[in-house]
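About this split. The held-out portion is used to measure sequence recovery: a designer receives only the structure tokens and must propose an amino acid at every position. Recovery is the fraction of positions where the proposal matches the reference. Here is one held-out target exactly as it appears in the evaluation file.
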């Protein structure tokens, strides 16, 4: 595809979308805008965008595709700003926000101007923010939810999907209401729970000094998302308030159920509670992002000696296998450790398994 793309908001998501568009459409010219000048400069330096816009107004009127990847309340304001401009007749406008009802309501006014606004939400991400965390394949195999209104024509929807083809995501059309209910359950509410678990541990930590030191394994896994950007989550909660209040009531009932179960100390009931959850969780699709996992993890059992990380990364680098993260978890102090290596694709992880098998005797296990 050819044309000018304006990416508004050059953080994790805007940066990743810009990279995927540049990768798939060599003839496209991607112009970026971010209120935070430093993010803009960094995006240009990392060649995430071809050019920086001085203002939204100046660039939007020339754009063939405009994507807004700012926090959701900012996204509403930007849509109002775009509504005042004389945009190109065939421009497609979309966004990447985590909520859809309020955004689609703001975007509905484009209908009167005969301009296509199609709400969008790539269902993958990270607790990291900023353009330095952006990756062209962040959305590979993830669902990309689209919420076109009825007046949007098939060819306008196709055009947007063509622009976004480099994400390698799987497009799914849902209504804005359905979107906010689904993401409320599987994304927004879990972020509240993760933050509340951290608050609980923090309170305990005030009286038990060991809490923070012992917080490892399970606690770190379940609270990773509590490290996400607070601005982004403030806006999401404000937008999806009604759904989240309902879910909170459900959750309180669920906790009441757990309380009764624990009070009556019924072993078999407790077993069933965990067994049912395990069964459902284990059956969730594994290979698709946006479900579980967000990254492709590989666990390598290694002797805990200095230099083991560089040994493994050396083998991977030799075979040009890129990794997104690496860390070591100690299991038995000074004897064995588990190296946790994250990859961006399943294919990279499979190549890494063969590479490590070829060069070492270390056991590898796939992270579920
Ligand atoms: N982080 C995730 O996992 C994830 C996944 C899918 C969708 N989203 C959604 O994508 C959007 C962006 O999230 P992110 O993770 O990239 O956040 P981010 O913090 O990494 O980036 C957001 C960027 O938007 C910029 N910005 C804020 N207001 C702006 C404005 N008025 N004009 C121009 N730029 C502005 C900020 O300076 C920042 O650089 C949000 O709506 C979020 O809900 C996030
Ligand atoms: O993996 C993470 O850190 C995320 O929180 C990503 C996540 C999610 O909840 O799954 C967060 C918000 C987005 O709207 C979509 C994806």
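Reference sequence for scoring:
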């Amino acid at each position: 595809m050819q044309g000018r793309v304006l990416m508004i908001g050059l953080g994790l998501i805007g940066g990743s979308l810009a990279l995927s568009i540049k990768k798939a459409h060599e003839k496209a010219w991607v112009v970026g805008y971010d209120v935070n000048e430093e993010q803009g400069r960094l995006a240009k330096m990392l060649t995430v965008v071809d050019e920086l816009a001085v203002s939204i107004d100046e660039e939007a009127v020339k754009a063939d595709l405009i994507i807004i990847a700012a926090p959701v309340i900012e996204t509403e304001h930007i849509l109002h700003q775009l509504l005042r401009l004389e945009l190109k007749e065939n421009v497609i406008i979309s966004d990447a926000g985590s909520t859809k009802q309020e955004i689609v309501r703001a975007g509905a006014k484009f209908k009167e101007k005969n301009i296509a606004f199609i709400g969008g939400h790539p269902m993958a991400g990270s607790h990291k923010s900023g353009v330095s965390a952006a990756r062209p394949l962040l959305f590979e195999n993830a669902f990309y939810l689209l919420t076109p209104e009825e007046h949007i024509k098939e060819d306008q929807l196709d055009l947007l999907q063509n622009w976004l083809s480099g994400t390698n995501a799987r497009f799914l059309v849902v209504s804005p209401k359905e979107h906010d209910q689904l993401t409320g359950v599987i994304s927004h509410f879990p972020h509240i729970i993760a933050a509340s678990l951290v608050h609980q541990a923090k309170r305990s930590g005030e009286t038990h000094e060991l809490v923070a030191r012992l917080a490892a394994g399970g606690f770190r896994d379940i609270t990773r998302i509590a490290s996400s950007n607070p601005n982004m989550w403030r806006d999401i909660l404000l937008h999806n308030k009604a759904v989240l209040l309902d879910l909170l009531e459900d959750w309180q009932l669920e906790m009441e159920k757990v309380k009764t179960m624990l009070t009556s100390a019924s072993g078999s009931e407790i077993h069933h509670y965990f067994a049912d959850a395990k069964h459902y969780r284990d059956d969730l699709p594994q290979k698709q992002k946006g479900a579980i996992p967000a990254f492709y993890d590989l666990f390598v059992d290694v002797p805990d000696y200095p230099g083991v990380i560089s040994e493994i990364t050396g083998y991977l680098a030799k075979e040009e296998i890129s990794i997104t993260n690496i860390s070591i978890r100690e299991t038995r102090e000074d004897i064995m450790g588990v190296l946790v290596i994250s990859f961006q694709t399943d294919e990279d992880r499979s190549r890494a398994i063969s590479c490590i098998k070829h060069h070492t005797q270390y056991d590898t296990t796939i992270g579920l």
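Annotator remark: The longest strand covers residues 296-303.
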